[in-house]
Structures are given as C-alpha cells and as structure tokens.
Write a structure and sequence with these properties.
- With 353 residues, the protein is of the alpha+beta class.
- The protein has 8 helices and 16 strands.
- It has a 9-stranded antiparallel β-sheet with strand order 3-6-8-7-12-13-11-10-9, with helices on both faces. The chain has a 3-stranded mixed β-sheet with strand order 1-2-16, with no helix packed on it. The chain has a two-stranded antiparallel sheet with strand order 4-5.
Length: 353
C-alpha cells in the first residue's frame, strides 16, 4: 500500500496553509444521490432572448451595440458600488461591519451565443486576454480599488444566469479572503527561503510530471497536489510575474492557448459543456510592491464521476476539512489523456486526435 495512491491521508496546501483529506479507496462507492442534467452547448449563434447578444436589450433597458469581438459594460445588478455605504460598526470586536466600495463589470467574450472558451480559437481568445489586461490596469488605477478579481462561472450548475460566453470583474476596496491567505503564504515563503513559492512548486511538478495536464512555451496547466475539487486545475506561467499587464505579447497569446487547451480537455472528459468557476489571482492594486505574487488561475469544476454526478461540500467538509476521493494524480491523467480536439469538432469533421 502506498500513501498517496491507496491509503487515507492529508495533503497540505502551501498557498492557503490548509489541509485536504484524500480517501482513494472511496472511488468505488455506489451513488444513489442527486444527479444533474448534463450541460449541453448552446445551439444558435444568436438568441433574440439573450440579454448579452449584440443588438438586444438588457434588463436595465440599455441596448447592446453590434460588437464584433468583445463587449464590456457595468453590471446591471452590481454586487459593489463606488459610493460609500455608511459608517463602520465595531461592537467589542464581535459585531463588526465596514463599508466596501467597488466596481462590477461584465465582459462578453464573443458576439456569438453558441461559443465557449473551448469552442473559440486562440485568435478569438487573445482579444479577451487583452480586455482582461486593460480592465485590470484601469480598475486597479482607481484610488479606492485594492483588488481586481476576474472570474468566469460557466454553466447553470455553477450559477451562470446566461449561457452566452462571458465573465465578470469585481474590483474591491479590500483584499478578499483567498487573496489574503495566498499573499501571506507567498510573502512568508519569500522571506524564509528567498524564492517564489509557486516558481519552486512548478519546478517540482515539471520534474514529477504526474499532475501535468497540458503545457506550452509560456504556461503550464496542472492538477495541484492539494486539489480539493475532483478535476481542479491550476494554470501557472513559467516566468515569474505578478499580473497580466506584465505579460509579453507572446505570453498573452500563450495564456489564450493554454486556456483553450485546458477547456477542450474539460469538455472532452464527459463530452459535455463542462461547468466550472475560474478566476485569476494577480497582484493587488493597493499601490504597494508585491514581488511575492506569482500570477495564476484557478479552475474549480464541480463534476465528480460523470456528467450527472457532482461533488458536494457537506458534512465533515463543512464542519472539519475538505475531502476528495479521486486522487489529483488520477484526475490529471484523465484530463491529460482526453483528446486535444474538441469532441464536437471530431463528430462534425471526423478529425483525428
């Protein structure tokens, strides 16, 4: 019996300094619980009822322009507003509240309703990366903004209210919880060891190769050793930099390419439009230097063993520690072995892998 493959064990996440329980022997347990409807891609390039398609009227009454590539607009129902919302509250350090200013935006990836990152070409994704970079820089330049969070919820299972290819940007005054934890860990690592936590971690993964999913000249997608979600992945640049606006032109295209490669493998795993939440962690925009920050993206997909069985965070996981059955190594192998050509292209064109 080997610890990582056969026995129950804990794995440490150095980014958050938290643990995950791994139970490989539970992969064969029967499932009689809730099942989900398999996610299917949108069928039409234009939907007259979609509030993100070109020329359509949104919920607030505004009409979308006939945009040829990307569209950026202020969220019609923002979670954050730029004006302050009252005075802070602190009663004995037990009842504490503080106003939070911010900006919430929506970015449409394409005018086509039926596309996703997995169905877009590198040439089509590259303008999206450019917009992300421009928005990170512009929002981060606002005096009150300390953090710019770019994220995509893909699929109804992840709470997406519209299948049109899009993401959100929430720019906040304060640093969110995950950013605080990751930055503290990266800063402590730099102070104690004189290097970059994720640079050193990536070197170990490139040497081991067991958890690598796909890679190109600038980026590597892998299943992290400490992954919580069954098919969770981490996208890391080979070069150390903190934010999108530090990328070269080749690296921007490389990011577009690795996102396409990874999302195609996700879709091919169960031959569905694979749901996930994805987001970028990059340097805070608080005016301070953050040499410890290594730019990266997290993908958190909910599916477990099929297109209709998802992982639930319940019981011990809510009250104690997250737990997983499928090992990160086996998950990485399944994603790595998934065809590099999208299943819909193979069905339509008879393309080979």
């Amino acid at each position: 019996m080997t610890l990582l493959n056969d026995a129950s064990h804990r794995r440490f996440n150095p980014l958050t300094r938290e643990w995950v329980l791994v139970s490989p022997h539970r992969t064969q347990r029967p499932w009689l619980g809730q099942t989900e409807r398999a996610a299917r891609p949108a069928e039409h390039a234009y939907d007259p009822e979609c509030y993100l398609c070109p020329g359509n009227r949104r919920a607030n009454g505004e009409v979308n322009p006939p945009y040829p590539q990307t569209l950026v607009f202020l969220n019609d129902f923002p979670a954050l507003k730029r004006e302050a919302g009252g005075e802070a509250i602190n009663e004995s350090g037990l009842i504490v509240a503080a106003p939070e200013r911010g900006v919430a935006k929506v970015v449409c990836f394409s005018p086509r309703h039926d596309l996703t990152l997995a169905r877009m070409s590198v040439d089509e994704i590259e303008p999206v990366v450019k917009v992300w970079t421009e928005e990170y820089r512009a929002l981060g330049a606002l005096e009150e903004i300390g953090w710019v969070q770019i994220f995509e919820n893909r699929g109804a299972m992840m709470g997406a209210s519209n299948p049109h290819p899009h993401c959100q940007i929430w720019a906040t005054e304060s640093l969110p919880n995950e950013a605080v934890k990751e930055l503290a860990s990266q800063r402590a690592y730099r102070e104690e060891r004189g290097g970059c936590l994720l640079c050193d971690y990536l070197a170990l993964e490139l040497d081991a190769k067991a958890r690598i999913v796909c890679e190109n000249e600038g980026f590597v997608a892998l299943t992290p050793f400490w992954a919580v979600w069954p098919f969770e992945t981490l996208v890391l640049p080979r070069r150390h930099f903190g934010a999108m606006d530090e990328m070269s032109g080749a690296e921007a295209r490389g990011l577009a390419d690795i996102l396409r490669r990874l999302t195609i493998r996700y879709d091919n795993l169960f031959e569905i439009s694979f749901p996930y939440s994805m987001g970028f962690h990059q340097s805070p925009t608080d005016g301070a230097a953050h040499p410890e920050q290594h730019f990266h993206a997290h993908f958190y997909p909910p599916l477990l063993r099929s297109a209709s069985v998802r992982k639930f965070m319940v019981g011990f996981e809510l009250l104690g520690t997250p737990q997983r059955d499928i090992t990160p190594e086996s998950a990485a192998a399944r994603l790595r072995d998934a065809p590099a050509v999208h299943y819909l292209d193979r069905l339509t064109n008879g393309a080979s892998d």
